[in-house]
Every structure is written in C-alpha cells, then in structure tokens.
Design brief:
Residues 161-217 bind DNA. The protein has 481 residues and is mostly helical. 56% of the residues lie in helices and 4% in strands. The protein is built from 16 helices and five strands. The longest helix is centred in the last third of the chain and has 34 residues, at 388-421. The chain is globular, with a radius of gyration of 36 Å. The N and C termini lie far apart (104 Å).
Length: 481
C-alpha cells in the first residue's frame, strides 16, 4: 500500500505540513525520504520501530515515524539522547561503580553469581530491605522503652533526681549557648557584674543549666535495656546460625570456593537485622545520650554500615558474619553493666564489668587481629590475586581495630580506678550530674536591693577594688601583662 494513501499517515502528513509551513509534504520514494535522506531501517537503539520511515520536521525539532500502523511524533535521536543526559550519567556511574574488578577477585564475573539451578547468591539490592526495617526497629524501640524499659527501671528502683531549674536570664543563657557551658572564673565574675548577681549565684545558675541538658537516669536505663535486649538476641541468634558452620571454627574456610558461595536464608535475615539496627542507631543519634566518645561512636556506626553492605555485596558473608558475632559477644555485657549501675546494684555491676573487660580484650584485641584480620590479609589471597575489594575490606577492618584500641584505653583507665578504690567508678565517657550540695552551709545570701544588686556582710564593698576590676572588665579593659 502506498504510504500516501494511508489515512493515518495522511493525517500525520497534514500535521507536519502545518507545523513546518510547507505546502507539500515530502514524497517518500523507494524507502528513502528526500527531506531527511534517511533509509527506512531505523536502528533499535533509537527506540523506533525497524520497519518505519522517518521525516524530520524542523519547526518542531522532532521526527515523524512511520510504522506499519500509523504515524507518531517523537524526538530526534540526538535530541532524545540529550534529554536523557542525566539518566545516562547515572547509568554510566552505575556501570563504573559495579565494575567486576572493584568487587570481585580476578577472573570472576557477576554472571557467575547469577541465581540458577536452585542456587541463590547474595545480590546488593537485597540490602535495600534494611531501610524500612530500620524504621520498624525505631518504632519498636519506642514501644519497648515506653512499656518495658521504663516499668522495669521503676521496679528495679531507678529514680530520677529532682532538678532545680535555672532561673531565666537572657545574658547567661546567651553566653551558655554561644560561648561555652563552663566559663572561666574571670568570665564568671564579668557575667555576675553584668547581671547583678554574686559569683556564687552565677556558678549555681550554670550548674543548674548544665543539668537541664543532661539526660535523666530513667532515659539512660531505657536506652541501655533496649540495646541489651537487641545485642543479646543477635548474639544468641548468631551463635545458632553459625554453630554448625565450618568457618566459625576454622576461619580459613571463609575462602573456600570464594566467591561462588550460595546464600543461606538464615544468614541473610541475621545480616539484614544487624544492618537495620545500625541504620536505626544513626537515625536516632540526635535523640540518644551523647557521651564524650560521640564522634567515635558515629565513626563506628558508619564503618559498620559500610562493612556490612560491602561484605554482602561482594559475597563476603562468611568473614562478615564472624566480625558481627565477635562484636555482639561483648556488647550485651556492657549494656547489662550499665543497667545494674543505674539501679545501684554495685556488686553485680562490678562483676559484670570485670567479665566485660576480659571478653572485650580477648575478642577484640586478640581474636580479632589474629584470626579475622590475619585471614583477610593473608589467607584470602593465597589462591587469587589482590583486588580493590581486598584493600577496601581490610581498610574497614583496620579502622574498627583502631576504635577497639581507643575504647580499651578507656576501659583500662576504669579498671585502674576500680582496683584502686575497690569499686566501680563512674563511666568516664558520661557527663555526671552536678548537685547544689556545694551551696549548702554557705553564708546566707543578702537581701536583694532595689537596683538588683545584693548586699552581703562578707561581700566586698560596691566601690572596692574587686568591683572596680569587674567594671573595668565589663568595659572592655584588659589588665596589661
């Protein structure tokens, strides 16, 4: 049938004629249109049908495609490629990111890890399920702390101290938020002069203001109880998953037939749960208790999430499972120690702390470097050459080891205090709540005067040398050195 006699194509011709301002539509002869000088065979990569003709319309910078049914409008191939530039860039980035030489040993390909014949392998997209599961864990934590942790803490005798709030003071509040929480004595004297308070009143205000930002004891107990429950469950679950596996007792078996190692469902669910938990910890970081090793905790969470994700994507589940189990073996002991410390069961807390210190030292400073790092650094490349994933994975393991050494230094300091005093000292990572007991027994405060100043029998006169020095500091004068 002649294309010019096709009703559908005639309508499309009229559209092209109107758009281009032409009086006549170009005639297609012998499969070639004289207007665009293109053959009727269109390459598949353009997304056009193979049996189509094309007519270029300059007015709309588009291309008219003829197929066996009707005419249709579409972008010219070069313009269509430009329109999908961002998508193409993402595609190129994705292709670069998943290069086999980055993730797999030499002479290995992703095709070898395709599911076939009932054999299932680990694939990176499996870990996407960790994101919604992390949100579920956050919700579960809120419910657990509200209906399990809080009642349990009250039953065990956890009581929050009654805190006296700091009186509103705009000058002191501004200094507290912008300059520092613990001003020097010279700054304290200057602030006292500006606010019409005594030095002792200013010190008390800062103590009470710092206490307002500190988490209460019940919040600490609830957080520790949630982590204890999770770490204990994952440790018991990890032991049940790995107990009958050869690589638990002989780490070199992690590299047997690597990377052609099938995925076990129970290992997948355990891995997924661990990754979801650490993602949930990152989500709740702004609301969790901030200790002095906050930056190290954030670094640990980031390294752990990266390590779990990378080990799963590169099918390093065997050695990754050993790393997870090694860490879970000590974490639940630490959280149990915190719980008994908050409940004032000092003897149980002391015993648990000694056990935790030994387990931490043995698992993370002996087993971890001699078994885990040794096998990943030496035994993993005995039958194959090193590749990028080999270096990256060992780098992550070494970063964890640096954090282990740092935290054991803190544990060692607490152990030294324990053996000196015969009892468990406070957690040196935590900020201890300050009390107003230092104010007891002081001379009575003087009566407040009309101008806001106070008069005390033991205070220096208003025009004395101390007051003059305070006023000089307030005016910006600094004593010469």
């Amino acid at each position: 049938m002649d294309p010019s006699q096709d009703p559908g194509r005639s309508r499309a011709s009229r559209r092209c004629q109107e758009a281009c301002g032409m009086t006549q539509i170009p005639v297609l002869k012998d499969g070639v249109d004289r207007f665009s000088a293109k053959k009727p065979q269109v390459e598949k990569k353009t997304g056009l049908v193979e049996d189509g003709f094309s007519v270029v319309c300059p007015a709309q910078n588009s291309q008219l495609v003829l197929d066996s049914q009707a005419w249709s409008w579409g972008k010219k191939p070069e313009d269509r490629d430009a329109g999908h530039g961002f998508r193409g860039m993402l595609s190129s980035l994705n292709a670069w990111l998943w290069q086999e030489k980055l993730w797999l040993p030499p002479n290995c390909s992703w095709e070898q890890l395709e599911d076939r014949d009932g054999r299932v392998f680990a694939h990176p997209h499996h870990m996407l399920a960790a994101l919604p599961l992390a949100l579920v864990l956050v919700a579960l934590r809120i419910v657990f702390e509200r209906f399990v942790g809080l009642p349990l803490g009250r039953w065990l005798g956890v009581r929050d101290r009654v805190r006296k709030p700091a009186k509103p003071n705009a000058t002191l509040e501004r200094h507290f938020l912008e300059t520092g929480r613990r001003p020097q004595e010279s700054q304290m004297a200057l602030l006292a002069a500006q606010c019409g308070l005594t030095l002792r009143q200013t010190q008390r205000w800062f103590r009470r203001r710092r206490n307002q930002d500190r988490p209460c004891l019940s919040k600490k107990f609830c957080e520790a109880s949630w982590r204890f429950a999770f770490y204990l469950c994952t440790f018991v679950g990890g032991v049940s998953v790995l107990y009958n596996e050869s690589w638990l007792w002989t780490p070199v078996m992690c590299w047997e037939n690597y990377p052609n190692q099938t995925l076990q469902p129970k290992l997948y669910w355990w891995y997924l749960l661990e990754l979801s938990f650490y993602i949930s910890l990152v989500i709740t970081l702004p609301f969790d208790i901030k200790r002095k090793d906050f930056k190290e905790q954030v670094a640990h969470h980031v390294v752990t999430i990266t390590l779990i994700t990378f080990s799963y994507s590169a099918n390093l589940l065997r050695i990754g499972s050993l790393v997870l189990l090694l860490h879970d073996s000590a974490d639940y002991l630490l959280e149990a120690c915190k719980m008994f410390n908050y409940t004032r069961f000092t003897s149980v807390c002391d015993a648990l702390f000694l056990i935790f210190s030994f387990v931490f030292f043995f698992t993370r400073l002996i087993l971890y470097p001699t078994q885990i790092i040794y096998t990943t650094y030496y035994e993993s490349i005995m039958d194959r050459g090193p590749f990028f994933g080999y270096y990256f994975f060992n780098l992550l393991l070494m970063m964890l080891q640096v954090l282990h050494v740092y935290w054991f230094g803190l544990i060692l300091r607490m152990l030294i205090n324990f053996f000196r005093k015969g009892q468990m000292a406070k957690d040196i990572r935590s900020d201890v709540e300050e009390s107003d007991s230092s104010d007891d027994g002081l001379a009575p405060e003087g009566l407040q005067m009309k101008n806001g100043m106070t008069h005390e029998p033991w205070a220096a006169p208003a025009d004395g040398p101390r007051s003059r020095a305070a006023r000089r500091l307030a005016n910006g004068h600094v004593p010469g050195t």
